[in-house]
Write a structure and sequence with these properties.
The protein folds into three domains: about 15-70 and about 110-235 and about 400-450, BirA Bifunctional Protein, domain 2; about 245-385, Alpha-Beta Complex (YbaK protein); about 470-560, 3-Layer(aba) Sandwich (Rossmann fold). It is built from 15 helices and 34 strands. The strands form nine sheets. Strands 4, 8, 9, 10, 11, 12, 13, 24 and 27 form a nine-stranded mixed β-sheet that branches. The chain has a six-stranded mixed β-sheet with strand order 1-31-30-32-33-34, with helices on both faces. Helix 2 (about 45-65) crosses helix 11 (about 440-450). The longest helix has 21 residues, at about 170-190. Bound molecules: adenosine-5'-triphosphate and magnesium ion (MG).
Length: about 575
């Protein structure tokens, strides 16, 4: 659809909006794409909605191309479906829950595995009914604790979610591979350069899962990458090769208690004792149901809950720490206590460590991990940092800030068993359906495109998602020759591509600024000088192309650039 700017609703802002620190948020407000209502809830204005529809079109085409069938599932769903999989409580406060007028407990679906599996359990009875891939483009509701970055993380958003149902492992692997390839095509068409990393499967449960991550300063996720061999992984589950610390050997001294009258954080203790953080042993107390567990890692690392892999594990409350150890967090350790202890490999054989003495404002020094405490289990539980060593090629690893735009999971029987979605196989045996689930956040894709395609003047939309492909800019609409040329080009172009005619009585400066801000990939500029020579300028938004063409050739030239058949 093509439109005249004078008749359109594109409320651009000249100024940087206040209190906005994120590029895509700022530009989507300034370009008049979105309007906030309440925290994490947005309206999409005509330009923003056109971009979202373009993204949806790309997704639909690619999903249809792998034989996925589009469905539409409800947002309202009853509590008992979610109880069956343990996710009513598992998702906690992130689910919007409420009662209807008959006092039935409902929620607004944050995702649709339960609803799909419910259909599968009622409708798919035989191996002859399988495989199936169903997808939808549907609004999800998640009461995110920290909505941020404009539409990067919102509480009401559209997701393309699809679900595969197969008879066996081989089947789900095929459905997964089809999705993986479709996702690569979708993100490429959206102009996004993704890294595909192995992911923790979190609240979804299940087996192999990968995330599509776009490197960007605006992202909340960090991934580990090895620039040498290409190893890449979600930070939570990335591995790294442990090296012995330099002074591992100088530990023949006796365990000694020392007075440390500073806050019990790694930084403060390290500064006070003049010991590097790597020689501090972080002792963290967790609970697995009613069992306390000590988790030990190096002071310069963080623990990965994903890698600990204990379902239902939670960090101990301050009063629990006090009653078990006699001290506050920061001054505790398993030394002298009979508590199950899990330690990271990085501490194996270590001596000369510093850790809490289970007394406020006291630490132990010269800790010899083999001599002074009992480790029940050695495990890979640390999150790597920049500079840690690649597990494959031993080069240094680095951290990269990314945005997660898509996620694919092999769910296995995580949902089909509890929801009794079984089928009869070719031998007449009852088997659980093997499932997969695959998501893409539509608004997040739009925000991520902006995060990765902008300059100091505004957005640079990749062609396929651009709200309009061409903007015609008559610099002085008061000049009849310019006006006439603009109208003529517009008449000839408007049926062939999506074009906006800036017919406003505004200055050239305002028109250029707005065209750049809203990021239309091509401009046809008509000014006094060029029109006197019967020509117009064709310019690309990225500044790479700027040519003068005869007015009569403007349409064919621009279509050539757009690769549209004339
Ligand atoms: P995140 O870790 O960012 O919260 P998630 O792991 O909860 O994401 P999934 O449940 O896998 O996300 O959802 C699939 C896709 O939906 C994500 O890859 C992302 O693109 C999008 N998405 C998830 N949560 C939001 C949100 N609050 N706002 C916008 N998009 C979202
Ligand atoms: Mg989430």
């Amino acid at each position: 659809m093509s439109i005249r700017w004078s008749e359109s609703f594109i409320p651009t802002l000249k100024e940087q909006p206040k209190g906005v620190d994120n590029i895509s948020h700022s530009l989507s407000l300034r370009a008049g794409l979105v309007k906030p209502l309440i925290s994490g809830v947005y309206s999409y204005l005509p330009l923003g909605w056109k971009v979202l529809l373009n993204i949806i079109t790309i997704i639909r085409e690619e999903m249809n191309s792998i034989g996925a069938q589009e469905v539409a599932l409800p947002s309202l769903s009853p509590r008992d479906l979610w109880e069956r999989t343990g996710r009513w409580a598992g998702w906690g406060d992130e689910i919007f829950k409420f009662n209807d007028r008959k006092d039935r407990e409902l929620c607004l679906a944050p995702t649709h595995e339960e609803i799909i599996t419910d259909i599968a359990s009622k409708e798919l009875h035989s191996y002859k009914d399988l495989p199936q891939i169903w997808y939808q483009i549907k609004t999800k509701y998640r009461d995110e604790p920290r909505p941020r970055g404009g539409v990067l993380r919102v509480r009401e958003f559209m997701m393309k979610d699809s679900y595969s149902m197969d008879v066996d492992e081989e089947g789900v692997k095929r459905s997964y591979a089809l999705h993986r390839d479709a996702y690569i095509r979708i993100f490429t068409r959206c102009g996004l350069d993704c890294k595909i990393v192995e992911a923790p499967s979190g609240v979804m449960g299940g087996g192999l899962s990968e995330e599509f991550m776009v490197p960007s300063e605006g992202g909340e996720d960090r991934i580990i990458v090895c620039k040498k061999c290409g190893y890449q992984s979600n930070r939570e589950i990335a591995s790294y090769k442990r090296k012995k610390s330099d002074n591992a050997s100088n530990g023949s001294n006796l365990l000694t208690k020392i007075y440390t009258p500073v806050e019990g954080s790694v930084d403060k203790i390290s500064e006070f004792l003049k010991v590097p953080p790597s020689k501090l042993m972080k002792s963290l107390l967790f609970f697995n149901n009613s069992e306390p567990i000590f988790v030990l890692i190096r002071g310069d690392h963080e623990v990965s809950i994903e890698k600990l892999g204990i379902k239902g594990l939670r960090i101990a409350e301050p009063h629990e720490i006090k009653s078990i150890t006699g001290a506050e967090a920061g001054y505790v350790s398993p030394i002298g206590l009979a508590i199950r202890t899990i330690a990271d490999y990085s501490l194996q054989g270590e001596k000369g460590l510093v850790t809490g003495a289970n007394e406020n404002e006291y630490h132990f020094k010269d800790v010899d991990i083999d001599r002074d405490l009992k480790v029940n289990e050695w495990k890979d539980i640390e999150i790597p940092n920049t500079g840690d060593i690649c597990p494959n090629c031993e080069s240094p690893l680095s951290l990269e800030q990314t945005i997660e735009v898509g996620h694919i999971f092999q769910l296995g029987t995580r949902y089909s068993i509890p929801m009794v979605a079984f089928f009869l196989d070719s031998k007449g045996d009852q088997k659980p359906i093997i499932m997969g689930s695959y998501g893409i956040g539509i608004e997040r894709v739009m925000a991520t495109i902006i995060e990765t395609h902008y300059d100091s003047n505004g957005i640079l939309w990749p062609s396929e998602v651009a709200p309009y492909k061409v903007v015609i800019i008559p610099l002085n609409i008061g000049n009849p020759k310019i006006k006439e040329a603009a109208e003529e080009i517009w008449e000839n172009l408007k049926e062939k591509t999506e074009v906006i005619l800036d017919d406003r009585d505004e200055t050239a400066g305002v028109k250029f600024k707005d065209a750049q801000l809203i990021g239309i990939p091509w401009q046809i500029v008509i000014g006094e000088r060029s029109i006197s020579e019967n020509s117009v300028e064709i310019k690309s938004r990225d500044g790479k192309i700027s040519t003068s063409v005869l007015k009569a050739n403007a349409v064919s030239e621009i279509l050539k650039e757009l690769k549209v058949q004339n």
